[in-house]
Write a structure and sequence with these properties.
The complex is a heterotetramer, with two copies of chain A and two copies of chain B.
Chain A (H helix, E strand, L loop, with lengths): L13 H19 L16 H9 L18 H13 L5 H17 L2 H12 L5 E4 L15 E5 L2 E9 L9 E7 L12 E7 L5 E6 L8 E12 L3 E2 L11 H8 L9 H10 L5 H29 L5 H25 L10 H18 L6 H11 L4
Parallel strand pairs in A: 1-4
Antiparallel strand pairs in A: 2-3, 3-7, 4-5, 5-8, 6-7
Helix pairs in contact in A: 1-3, 4-5, 4-6, 6-8, 6-9, 7-10, 8-9, 9-10, 9-11
Chain B lengths: L6 H13 L2 H6 L6 H10 L18 H14 L5 H13 L9 E4 L6 E4 L5 E9 L6 E6 L6 E6 L4 E3 L9 E9 L3 E4 L6 H33 L1 E2 L2 E2 L4 H29 L6 H29 L10 H11 L6 H15 L4 H5 L3
Parallel strand pairs in B: 1-4
Antiparallel strand pairs in B: 2-3, 3-7, 4-5, 5-8, 6-7, 9-10
Helix pairs in contact in B: 1-3, 1-4, 4-6, 6-7, 6-8, 6-9, 7-8, 8-9, 8-10
The chains are: A alpha+beta, B alpha+beta.
Chain lengths: 386, 354, 386, 354
């Protein structure tokens, strides 16, 4: 009768606590040195190559990867701790985050050995920035409608077309993208797309930044004009990108970044209400903290199951669905709870500024990396409904 | 600890399947199923799961006990298994032996308080005490100048005003008028009425999460059978989204409840982090009960609104359980106060403490 | 660019205020006489034939109908006032509500003159109770899947099959029902159903009450076995029931009963918090009252537009969609707001009891008379999406 | 009064269509469109709609003025039309003539208060004053021992600390340090700062409702053009439900705002029922803004998150307008207090008073 959803009560092992202390100490030093301001989440998109290298030096990039590629063979749960501490501190992770979370694992799985030996150690040293080329002007949620073409040529492929909404493309060294190598077939509309590694520094690529309503420039349009990709940069099987949606996706969906994006407003709310809140504020904060705690338990649970070799695809999608909706509504809930905050509260201006930014950020949270609609479709499929 | 590894939970599951099938008991208006079920549960030692062998119990681990509660929540039955377990656990805190038969606990609400009088009797009123009417004994926590005590009281020594929960389960007002306990001992250091409420909240969280699992199962099955506009309703995107949301609420409840149960089972001291686990479980599970029950009913439509269908056994109980041992609003205020008192910069360390 | 939603700011005309006073005085007398208890909404389903007749005597049934049929030729807005005052008082309207709101208007439009002359005046006198036979065991939201058959016979039709969820069928004198007279066609799956007037006191009908989770017995299963319906009891055109969905439906969807079903818990909450609520309670009550006020303005607006001869079909569906979701959530919001109510509040027990009943009632509110899903489909069609 | 009957609203609509087309002004980063638009609005007498002819205004009816605001909300433009209208209305309460040019009002928040000093100057601080930076004059309400006064002040006499609203419109802190007003008169009996806030709340409600109408239009149009998974996204039930909900929120905002505007236009006294109308409008329109903007962005996806697309002109303004002249939380508390003070049995008569 019951559907089989599992959220094992995973605890972070003791080694994580030592690591957490180290990360906190490191971030405190960086803040003290002026590398970034934890109270300015709006600057989180700024590029910071030196910070990136220092994170690499600490051994906090490619943490779970084999040592031969520069990795550290540590657990997913240890990586989890680093990710959440960076996120909560509003550290400038933009430069290395995608490479560490998504691109590296894809290369590990599909790239030829010499490319792995070349690029992975550089990711681990925090030297390279990746972007992901999925959406196109006429294919957003529906990735398999992509039209940007890879045409076979001598020793490689010529790319023509454009990608859009590619985060960090303006500062990226590489992109992992899907391009059309064959038309879809009648039986399988997802057929015909192939995954490639693109060197963004080679000719034939124009990056046009797109301004967001937050005033930031995270997104880009990337136009390819006869851009050449060598044969050995094809990742995985030809025409079969659709098969390569793997359990990494589960990890990508359920990380702490899926519910902590606007967390900073909650901290500031607690500061603003002070040590003796009225019933209204106390209840509001209590509920938000209970919801946050629950999501973190869900997210840690998925990380632990992944570490144990399971593939909690539905559970991961649920974490993202609930988490992104929560972080999207959080600024509005905090705005309400702060409505009667004494304006002599020391952080009043900070809270106002943060709220403004968080409210503007909110709409994208349930769109990026798979919309609510797509996630619910995946969950429904997992429940056996479709 | 997961159910599959757990022989105690398996036993409970088998007993409920054999003797408390939802369809069967829903049609048995006389409640003839209750006595055999209770007998079987007792024979398997489940009501005294949390009572050590030296106190005449089964000496099952905390974790196994919690998984029995999860099974009981999934079964949504109206017998005081959770209450008797909780009573046994409470008595064991003071090394008081558990008697045979059904038990319950008091107080069951943070608004009430029972007082230990100077001459050793107990006075006060406890409202919303689950199954008091059916219980032979009540395990109580009293407050007094000398600190908290734990006592065993015969129900017959109290006045019981019958009430009903939303699910029509007994939820009674128990009045203690200089009641002489059967046994009484000082509570261990640091243990008071709040400790009982917190444990009660956790017990209810487990049951709510279990009930949500069943609601989800019922909803998914129904949507795969019911046809409207010439297709199975599971093929409608609106129904899919509703069930995906129900799966989300069920997951949140499961994760919150099982995390808290695990934390309590580890024997960790009752610090802020453990308080967070239990309070968050009750808050989040209650929120999930409201959203989840609404979705399950929406998916089932009119049929789910009838006595005839089993759905209400789970939805109404999950909603009723929100009220026991402190509502989600109560725990949210308590948790909010704790968070505020610790201060903004101590929030993240609290959340990330495990 | 903008979709054309209209909610004209309709005000109730002065004659309504006099009427309202009369209705309130009448209800106060009835309460004083013990006819019903406004604090016992759970008894609202009880049958009360004498009350029904007294309402008829006052001229408050068939208010908008022609005088020749016993009606009073008053406005929709006057009827609105009577309806809302009865609803708010938890008066026992069950016996006459369906006849007055839905069945009478259908008869007015489709019944032959002699039937109108026979039945309508009796509705106006509060003497007859109607039920509506739409849903069947395998057709709920999808009315046009109905299978219960009307087979032509000498001088009439023989009915075989069953209807379900028919409110008040156990006490009804008549039912207006749709039966299958022809199979659906390929082009139009809604073809083949015909509307009939059924005399519930004639042979061949068994009514089986269905217990609800509230403990009430509003619903019934109605089984027809060779039940005879005379030819002149056919309402409208044969096979064309689907065309007869008219603007009455708009009125049915947007009345005050679509958001006031659980209103009583709000009144009791206000009583329980007393004259000086804390910020939490004040904000909660203020929002709920603002939402209630807004829905009433929407609902009055639709009634006024109907009175003016417009057909605000989408607007009416919106009122029902928003209204039923609101009245469904209201008991849960009130339960929260009452969480810290002083238990010495005089109405503590009443509030608790009402909340229990309202919470159990809540699930049906977005199901009966067209589910949320059906309503949103209608709204989407009105927006031009389908 | 509906827009169609209303020649003033039609004029406004034509001016906005000609000079403030959403696409055009969204691309004009220099704001070159503002001056011609303001000139045309001024030529049509719209900024002084609510100023009687004897005070040098257009003497338009209240109702017509409100429909201009609804049009302005639909156009989502960054010029202080609403603020100047409000300022003119405020000055007219004390028969002070309106000057030419852009105006705004202060205080704009219930937290602030301006004081009339004994020697006739004004002191105090007003935060979140919309368009103060661009206004030549500020119409203010002062509080003092002798009751409220209404005054006209030159912006240049005040200190302006520039701020920005969520929509990047000016939202400034205005400091009055013994500022000598250009004109000052006693407010009419019963008129005080709260009267201004209530009227401001109503003005913002009209604008929010207008912005929601445009969001709905954008959402519906986009869904009919955008293709995903080989069909128009308007064919997905999830998108249909989202847009139906947006239509619901838009309807609620329209109904609440137009009802309140109508009630104010009727010249009824400021009794509890009129307070309900205005407070409810601000509360419900603000709630609709939050829900509606979220849905509109969800339907449009990434494109709606860009500066390039016009959607943000309406969503961010609707969200920003929630904060002006008392947030929905503020008015909800005020309304809740009023309802509680009247008592339970007076709630329904209040709601049903019109």
């Amino acid at each position: 009768m019951t559907a089989a959803l599992r959220f094992d009560p995973i605890r972070l092992p003791p080694e994580c606590e030592q690591l957490r202390k180290e990360v906190r100490a490191f971030l405190a030093e960086e803040i003290a040195a002026g590398t970034f301001d934890p109270h300015k989440p709006q600057r989180e998109d700024s590029d910071n190559p030196e910070f990136s290298k220092r994170v690499g030096e600490r051994g906090w990039l490619g943490m779970t990867w084999p040592k031969k590629y520069g990795g550290h063979e540590r657990s997913f749960l240890e990586r989890y701790v680093v990710t959440e501490e960076m996120r909560v501190a509003n550290a400038p992770v933009r430069r290395f985050f995608v490479a560490d979370r998504q691109s590296g694992p894809v290369l590990l799985k599909y790239a030829p050995e010499h490319i792995k030996m070349d690029i992975l150690p550089r990711i681990c040293r925090g030297e390279v920035c990746f972007s992901i080329g999925m959406s196109e002007p006429n294919s957003g949620s529906d990735l398999f409608a992509a039209k940007t073409k890879a045409t076979k040529t001598d020793g490689g492929w010529l790319i023509n077309g454009s990608k859009i909404w590619t985060t960090s493309a303006h500062m990226a060294d590489y992109m992992i993208a899907i391009f059309r190598t064959s038309p879809p077939t009648k039986e399988n509309r997802r057929h015909g797309l192939t995954q490639f590694l693109v060197n963004m520094k080679k000719p034939g690529i124009t990056v046009n930044p797109i301004a967001q309503i937050t005033g930031q420039y995270e997104f880009n349009e990337v136009v390819f004009t006869d851009h050449f990709v060598p044969d050995d940069h094809m990742l995985g099987e030809i025409d079969s990108a659709w098969k390569q949606a793997t359990s990494e996706l589960a990890y990508e969906r359920s990380g702490p970044e899926r519910f902590l994006e606007t967390y900073y407003v909650l901290t500031e709310l607690v500061r603003a209400v002070g040590p003796k809140p009225d019933t209204r504020s106390a209840e509001g904060i209590g509920r938000l903290v209970a919801q946050l705690h629950t999501m973190r338990r869900m997210s840690v649970s998925v990380a632990g199951m992944l570490q144990a070799g399971k593939e909690p695809v539905v559970e991961a999608s649920i974490v993202k669905d609930i988490g992104t909706i929560w972080e999207q509504q959080l600024p509005h809930r905090v705005r309400e709870l702060a409505a009667f905050v004494d304006d002599t509260a020391s952080n009043h201006a900070t809270l106002d500024e943060m709220l403004g930014f968080a409210i503007k950020t909110a709409p994208k949270l349930t769109i990026q990396g798979g919309t609510t609609e797509v996630l619910r479709g995946i969950i429904a499929r997992g429940l056996g409904l479709r | 600890m997961t159910d599959a590894d757990n022989i105690v939970a398996e036993t409970a599951e088998r007993i409920f399947a054999d003797l408390a099938d939802g369809q069967t008991i829903n049609h048995d208006k006389q409640g003839n199923w209750k006595a055999p079920l209770w007998q079987a549960l007792t024979d398997a030692g489940l009501p005294l799961s949390w009572v050590p062998e030296e106190c005449d119990g089964s000496g099952t681990s905390m974790a196994e006990g919690f998984s029995v509660l999860s099974v009981a929540g999934r079964a949504g039955v109206a017998v005081p298994l959770a209450e008797t377990m909780l009573a046994g656990w409470l008595l064991a805190q003071a090394q008081i032996k558990s008697p045979e038969g059904m038990m319950t606990v008091a107080p069951a609400s943070p608004r009430d308080r029972l007082t230990l009088n100077t001459h050793g009797t107990i006075s006060g009123r406890a409202r919303g005490v689950p199954f008091a009417k059916d219980a032979r004994h009540i395990a109580v926590v009293t407050s007094g100048i000398g600190g908290a005590s734990i006592a065993l009281v015969e129900t017959s020594a109290c006045r019981i005003d019958n009430g009903l929960s939303l699910a029509d389960d007994p939820s009674d007002t128990v009045s203690f008028d200089n009641v002489k306990p059967v046994a009484i001992k000082s509570a261990p250091s640091g243990f008071d009425q709040n400790s009982l409420l917190l444990m009660g909240a956790l017990v209810r969280s487990q049951q709510i999460a279990g009930a949500l699992e069943t609601m989800l199962g019922i909803g998914v099955n129904y949507s795969g059978e019911r046809v409207a506009f010439e297709k199975k309703i599971s093929k409608f995107q609106a129904v899919q989204h509703n069930l995906a949301k129900l799966a989300g609420e069920t997951s949140a409840a499961l994760a919150a409840a099982s995390s808290a149960a695990d934390a309590f089972s580890s024997g960790a001291p009752l610090d802020d982090a453990l308080f967070l686990e239990a309070a968050a479980a009750k808050i989040r599970c209650s929120e999930a009960a409201e959203k989840g029950a609404a979705i399950a009913h929406q998916v089932l439509g009119a049929i789910g609104f009838t006595q005839e269908h089993i759905l209400h056994r789970y939805t109404l109980r999950a909603l009723a359980w929100r009220d026991d041992f402190g509502s989600e609003s109560y725990w949210a205020v308590e948790l909010g106060k704790l968070v505020a008192a610790r201060g903004a910069d101590e929030l993240w360390p609290l959340v990330a403490s495990r």
